[in-house]
Each structure stands twice: as structure tokens, then as C-alpha cells.
């Protein structure tokens, strides 16, 4: 039975739907609409579509539905809604679940676009947002109130790799009747147990490890059927943030190899972090799989791995970071992550450049910080490349 399958089997076969042709690879239904035999059938479907009945690609599509069911089954959630990008998933979940007068508590260590949605978009529509240090449970306790609608955080923060205790924050939030919404990108669906640990809503940018090969944008919101097929689906289908069928098909192909890729990337990341730690040109190395990481024990309990991402700070600041980046021969300079190709990013001047300098400093985004997404290259080649780049710095 499908419910007894191990994760790797779910990634290959979960949620499968086959047409009358009985194809092996999932069919790509590249259509925006669907035909009804009669006007009465169209009326009935608009009133209540069945599980394999579709109306319009903005509402749902057979290829997209396979992706939603497959990733929801892997995550241990009842349902999913696939979105056009990771940020469409974040914005859609937060907008669908809040209204004017609600209160939201969020960790301040977030991707810049997530902070924009919280502070600018939700704030513009009358939602009060309180930011806290995600690793400080006392701050969560002090901030959550009786009118708190939801809490939001990255389970592992971008880019400084702080690990938030999902189970502990969920206990605090649920005691006040608030929902727990977790951006789980850095943890990956391979190492995630977020739903089991108390997350009500789990969000992924499928652009990252799910695709894993730099081809397409996508995202997904996962959670209870009542919420996903209620407020989330209603909001998303009317505002147009749905995933395209072609991108859903690409993501399905990515899921088939995701477990193998992510585990290999995490193993390489651990080797690289160990090789870089203590290097004389580095002020610090941040990797949740290193015993020196402040939340090492929590990361092991929560994920069982350090993940595929690490960061390091060059003691010489931005100038040294730029020299090192420019000297890389294997690792690419870009702003994506979770790719088969290793990617280095300078957050202070790219992904988080819009943040005020004081806020960057508070989040540990220093001028010398480099974020590294570890790919599928030979770890020895990556270590050699990084060491020669540090010499150039």
C-alpha cells in the first residue's frame, strides 16, 4: 500500500495518475481549460468538482495535481497547492490566512523578500507584525498574544543558517491558538519532519532542491486539507499564482532523484565545512552539521543532517570576499541554491542588499559573508577550488 512506502519510493510513484494510454512517465497536460459534454455537466463541476475533475489551470491541472499529491504525501500533509514560485507560496499562505487586525509573529532572520511581504504588504493591509530572534524561545513567548493569528519562520535561516526549534515554537503558538507556518527550504523535503514536529503549514520553493537543476520556478504550500482546499486554494485561484503544468512536470522529474541528490550534497557540504573550519582567512564557518554550530544538537534532532548549505565569513570583509568569489573556477557566482551546480552568493550585496545596514549586522550578514550552496561535483574538487580562492583573497 502507498501509505507504507518509504520516502524514496514515494518520490518516484506517489500521487500517480495515468491516462487511458497507461504511460510510464507522468503525462504533461499542457492545457489551460477542459471540455464538458453538456452545459449541465459544466454547471455541476463549477458547483463541486470531484478529485479528478478540473475546470481551469489556474484552479488545478492533472499534472500539477500529481506533483501536489506526491510532495504532500512525502511531507506527511493532507494536501498541497502548487504555486508559480517559492515567493508566491510564501505570499499566498500569509495573505490567505490573515486579515486586517490580525497579529503575526515572525523570526527576523528571513530572506529579504519574505521580510518585504511581512513588513510592507501585510502591514499595508492592517496586519500587525512582531519580529523576534527565532532562536530565542523567551522572545517567542513574550511576543505571541491571544490575537496572534500565525507565527512564521525559516526552519534554517537564509543566509546565516540559524536553526529554529519547530516543536518548541509550535507548542508556544498552539497554546495561543495560532497557526505555525514554516519556510522549510534549507531543511529540504529529504531531511524535513516539520509537520510531525508541529508545523501546520509547510512551504517550499520548488525552484531549489525539488527541481535541483536550475530549470524552472515553482513553489508549494502544504498542510491540512481544510486549510489548503479552503482559504489557501480560494485565495490562490482568484489571484493567479498557480504553478504551470510544464513546470509541475519538471518538478516531478526532479522529485524522482531528489533524495539521492540532496543526500550526496549534504555529505559534500559536511566535508567542505570541516575542511574550511579554522582556515586563517576565515573569521567563522557556519554549518549546522559542525559541532561548533550554536544549534548543532537541535539540527541533529530536527533534521538528522547539516543540510546542503553553508556560509563562511572572510576576515578581510567585502573586498576579500569579492576577490575569493572572482577566483572561483568550479563554483559559480549566482543567487539560486539547491542546484546540482555549486553556487556562491554574497548576500550583503545581492539577496539581502535592500536591508538596512543595522539590520544586516543584527542578522549576521556581514560584508565578508559568503553563502555556499553545495552541488553534485566531486567534494575534493570543490574543496580545492575554495582553498585556492581563499588564497587569492
Task: State the secondary-structure class.
Answer: alpha/beta
On the 0-100 scale, what is the average pLDDT?
96
Spatial arrangement of strands, main beta sheet: 1-7-6-5-4-2-3
Largest sheet report: 7 strands, mixed
Q: Could you state the order of secondary-structure elements as H and E?
A: HHHEHEHEHEHEHEEHHEHEHEEHEH
Poorly predicted runs are: none
- Under CATH, the topology of the largest domain is which? Aspartate Aminotransferase, domain 2
Describe this structure as you would to a colleague:
- The protein is an alpha/beta fold and 393 residues long.
- The chain folds into two domains: 2-254, Type I PLP-dependent aspartate aminotransferase-like (Major domain) (Aspartate Aminotransferase, domain 2, 3-Layer(aba) Sandwich), CATH 3.40.640; 259-392, Aspartate Aminotransferase, domain 1 (Alpha-Beta Complex), CATH 3.90.1150.
- It has 14 helices and twelve strands.
- The strands form two sheets. The protein has a seven-stranded mixed β-sheet, with helices on both faces. The chain has a five-stranded mixed β-sheet with strand order 8-9-12-11-10.
- Strand 5, helix 8 and strand 6 form a beta-alpha-beta unit.
- The longest helix is centred in the middle third of the chain and has 32 residues, at 245-276.
- It is globular, with a radius of gyration of 21 Å.
Amino acid at each position: 500500500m502507498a501509505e507504507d512506502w518509504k520516502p524514496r519510493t514515494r518520490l518516484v510513484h506517489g500521487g500517480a495518475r495515468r491516462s487511458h494510454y497507461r504511460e510510464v512517465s507522468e503525462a504533461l497536460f499542457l492545457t489551460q481549460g477542459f471540455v464538458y459534454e453538456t452545459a449541465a455537466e459544466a454547471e455541476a463541476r463549477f458547483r463541486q468538482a470531484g478529485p479528478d475533475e478540473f475546470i481551469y489551470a489556474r484552479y488545478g491541472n492533472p499534472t500539477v495535481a500529481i506533483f501536489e499529491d506526491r510532495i504532500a504525501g512525502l511531507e506527511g500533509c493532507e494536501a498541497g497547492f502548487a504555486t508559480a514560485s517559492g515567493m508566491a507560496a510564501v505570499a499566498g499562505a500569509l495573505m490567505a490566512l490573515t486579515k486586517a487586525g490580525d497579529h503575526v509573529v515572525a523570526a527576523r532572520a528571513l530572506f529579504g523578500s519574505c521580510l518585504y511581504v511581512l513588513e510592507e504588504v501585510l502591514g499595508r493591509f492592517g496586519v500587525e507584525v512582531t519580529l523576534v530572534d527565532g532562536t530565542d524561545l523567551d522572545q517567542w513567548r513574550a511576543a505571541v498574544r491571544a490575537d496572534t493569528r500565525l507565527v512564521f519562520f525559516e526552519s534554517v535561516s537564509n543566509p546565516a543558517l540559524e536553526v529554529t526549534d519547530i516543536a518548541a515554537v509550535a507548542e508556544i503558538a498552539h497554546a495561543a491558538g495560532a497557526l505555525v507556518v514554516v519556510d522549510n527550504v534549507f531543511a529540504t523535503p529529504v531531511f524535513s519532519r516539520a509537520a510531525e514536529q508541529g508545523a501546520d503549514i509547510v512551504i517550499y520553493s520548488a525552484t531549489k532542491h525539488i527541481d535541483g537543476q536550475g530549470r524552472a520556478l515553482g513553489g508549494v504550500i502544504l498542510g491540512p486539507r481544510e486549510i489548503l482546499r479552503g482559504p489557501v486554494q480560494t485565495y490562490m485561484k482568484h489571484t493567479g499564482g498557480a504553478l504551470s503544468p510544464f513546470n509541475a512536470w519538471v518538478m516531478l522529474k526532479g522529485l524522482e532523484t531528489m533524495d539521492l541528490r540532496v543526500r550526496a550534497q549534504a555529505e559534500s557540504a559536511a566535508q567542505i565545512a570541516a575542511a574550511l573550519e579554522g582556515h586563517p582567512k576565515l573569521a567563522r564557518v557556519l554549518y549546522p552539521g559542525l559541532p561548533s554550530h550554536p544549534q548543532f544538537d537541535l539540527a541533529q534532532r530536527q533534521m538528522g543532517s547539516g543540510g546542503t548549505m553553508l556560509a563562511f565569513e572572510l576576515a578581510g570583509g567585502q573586498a576579500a570576499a569579492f576577490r575569493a568569489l572572482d577566483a572561483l573556477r568550479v563554483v559559480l557566482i549566482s543567487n539560486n541554491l539547491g542546484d546540482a551546480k555549486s553556487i556562491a552568493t554574497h548576500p550583503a550585496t545581492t539577496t539581502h542588499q535592500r536591508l538596512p545596514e543595522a539590520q544586516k549586522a543584527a542578522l549576521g550578514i556581514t560584508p565578508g559573508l559568503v553563502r555556499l550552496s553545495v552541488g553534485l561535483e566531486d567534494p575534493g574538487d570543490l574543496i580545492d577550488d575554495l582553498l585556492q580562492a581563499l588564497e587569492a583573497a
